[in-house]
Amino acid sequence: MPPRACASTEDLRRALYALPPGQRLALRRHPVVAVSIHCSSLVRGLAQHGETARNLLRDLDHTHALLLDFAGTQDEIDAARILGILSLELNRDHRRRRGLETVMNHASDLDLAFDLVLNQHDINHRIVLNRQGVLSHQLDLVRALLSSVDQVRSEFRDLMNDFGSASNRARALDYAHALDLRLGRVRDFDPDRLLTLARSLSWSVDMQACRTLGLPRGGWIGALLTDGVLDDFTKADLASVDMTGLDLSGVRWSHQGTIWPPGQEDRIRRVSQKAEPGSDIWVVIRADGADIVQV
Q1: pLDDT tens column, 236-280
Q2: Measured by CB atoms within 10 angstroms of the end CB, which terminus of the chain is less buried, N or C?
Q3: Candidates 1.10.3210, 3.90.380, 1.20.120, 1.10.10; correct CATH number of 25-212?
């Protein structure tokens, strides 16, 4: 476990809101902030879907056994029964894999953010080496697991489309052997270890983020950043802030509580939408496919 934080989550929240509004706006797109957010998102995703990966691995073991049963049976009714079970399991696994796809998207975003930070020398290189080491290996095993699910679905369709063929049983045996080899490469996948590694990395990155933001040393600031603390300007006086070149996409603001520079509110409202119907909270959105929103 990481050492106890010197500043509590609430201390960090208050410190973030105490930063000058213009500084908070500028820091929203800082590369270290992006890394912290992606780390936190990865941790959340792994905590939510780690058991899914374990279930997929167990299901693929059962799929391997079913393929062997199908290859060995001479009874057409039994063969149809086995394929029916396979169909139900593979459809369930296809639904399960969606959550893991989200996790892997977070991992890909983290890779890109790390590349940017490393190029700008804003983060300790040892953190990147940690990311590229054991953690990266475990994430590669998740990718291999998802690939195996996709491959089995494709092979199952072949078996269904050619159900009456004399060569179908031999094909199923080949598929079973191929699946056994793929499973051999992912059997050392450990969701608990992966989550522990991700949390350790997130802690280290959060320490760097605190230094970058000029905040008290504390842990898990990424969770606050992920929850949008740096996006909340619903009670901010921005009247004297120079908006030139700032990306405002995702900024939350209020007609009653936010003070924009003179002449800017109407322009910002045109690229915003209400957070909820009837709410006074607005969110700046990306218009016309633009990567950023500037005023």
Answers
A1: 999 999 888 888 999 999 989 999 999 888 889 889 999 988 889
A2: N
A3: 1.20.120
